[in-house]
Design a protein that fits this description.
heterodimer, A: mainly alpha, B: mainly alpha, two-stranded antiparallel sheet, 4 helices, 73% helix, elongated
Chain lengths: 200, 191
């Protein structure tokens, strides 16, 4: 028996898969899952680092008389939208690295992956909501900073703080990429789960 | 070894039948839940778009032009299309509302349970989750700016003047939040 098993390991495995449904997911899907989760981690880290390093101090002409010229710093911490952005993207990066490790574990031990995948779908969609909201919030505030708004008297600030604004724009683009990665992740999980549901 | 496989196959057949029955019952229950959630999403995104779309307030603002003269009262109007974030919010909610109506009809018509259609609906539900959450984030950030202002870049708060406008905007954000949560539940329950 042992010799048979060693002689035909592939056949044995195929027969086993056929006999005892559900069949294990193909390795390609889990590998794609691991790669996408790593991308999520990378985009979270990059977005946070770019946003945090956006400090810029400029000499600005103030509108009130006593100190007409002053060194005024611009930091992400000054806007609650950007603070939320940093927190959300940090959470996304942390989630990305943890789930990359779990997914790698599922790649090595495919037996328990259905349950794991199901739990991932819920958290992936939740993270998608959080990251999309962060991108929307940062984008809205950044757009007002870029163009200003004459109706409510918010002047534009990006012509003075161009490095700051460039960092914020780059960070927003990376977080947009992160949310697209999350959409793809959920689609991948849905696809691989729907393959495993028995047809009737 | 052979017998082992046979018994496994028989057992598998039995469980398959049972799984089938359970799945059909589950499907019926899921479909009712699906329809209710879709209807909720439709209603709340429509309400959010309308509430922000009709949001308009005209007041007079006292502006001091020259410090020796008394302040001049200038009429000022706040509407949703003055801020691009609000425009994005209204457009996103209108898209979500239209999509919820279309998908409601498709789900009602899809009695056979075609798999391709179901997958397409899940994909678009996911896109709507992203769209609605980002619009809620955008209007939330701008609304917070309106309530508190930002002293670092000298953006004054405006909600002390346009109080009704701001409150109505926040109501719209809440409604859209409920709509986005129902889309979220749709995706989660579909898997």
């Amino acid at each position: 028996m042992a010799s048979i098993e060693t002689q035909y390991p592939a056949m044995e495995k195929a027969a086993h898969d056929h006999a005892v449904a559900p069949p294990s997911p193909s390795k390609h899907l889990i590998l794609a899952d691991v790669v996408l989760r790593f991308f999520l981690f990378a985009s979270g880290v990059v977005a946070v680092v770019v946003m945090v390093t956006s400090n810029q101090t400029e000499i600005v002409r103030l509108p009130f008389p006593p100190f007409p010229l002053a060194h005024v710093p611009a930091k992400f911490r000054y806007s609650p939208a950007f603070v939320y952005f940093v927190v959300a993207l940090s959470v996304a990066g942390l989630y990305g690295i943890i789930t990359t490790l779990v997914s790698l574990y599922a790649l090595l031990k495919p037996s328990c992956s259905t349950k794991v995948l199901y739990h991932f779908v819920i958290f992936d969609v939740l993270l998608l909501g959080i990251v999309a909201a962060a991108t929307g919030a940062g984008g809205a505030v950044g757009y007002v900073g870029l163009r200003g708004n004459s109706h409510v008297g918010w002047r534009e600030v990006c012509h003075e703080y161009n490095k700051y604004c460039k960092h914020i724009a780059g960070s927003l683009v990376v977080s947009l990429f992160g949310s697209i990665v999350l959409v793809l992740l959920v689609l991948l999980s849905v696809y691989s789960l729907s393959k495993r549901i028995p047809k009737y | 070894m052979d017998s082992q496989y046979k018994s496994a196959g028989i057992e598998n057949g039995v469980t398959n039948d049972r799984v089938k029955e359970v799945a059909v019952g589950k499907k019926r229950k899921m479909r009712g839940r699906d329809l209710v959630l879709r209807f909720l999403a439709l209603a709340f995104s429509l309400a959010a778009a309308v509430v922000l779309g009709v949001d308009k307030q005209s007041t007079t603002v006292a502006v001091t032009l020259v410090s020796s003269l008394p302040p001049v009262n200038i009429p000022a109007t706040a509407t949703w299309h003055h801020l691009s974030a609000f425009v994005y919010f209204v457009v996103a909610n209108a898209i979500a509302c239209a999509y919820a109506a279309i998908s409601l009809l498709l789900t009602l018509g899809n009695r056979g349970g075609k798999k391709g259609l179901v997958t397409m609906i899940v994909v678009f539900d996911l896109v709507m989750v992203a769209l609605l959450f980002s619009s809620v984030g955008a209007v939330g950030a701008i609304g917070l700016m309106g309530y508190q202002g930002n002293s670092h870049v000298q953006w004054k708060k405006v909600c002390n003047v346009f109080d009704k406008f701001c409150n109505q905007g926040m109501v719209a954000v809440g409604l859209s939040g409920v709509a986005s949560i129902s889309f979220f539940l749709l995706v989660v329950l579909a898997t």
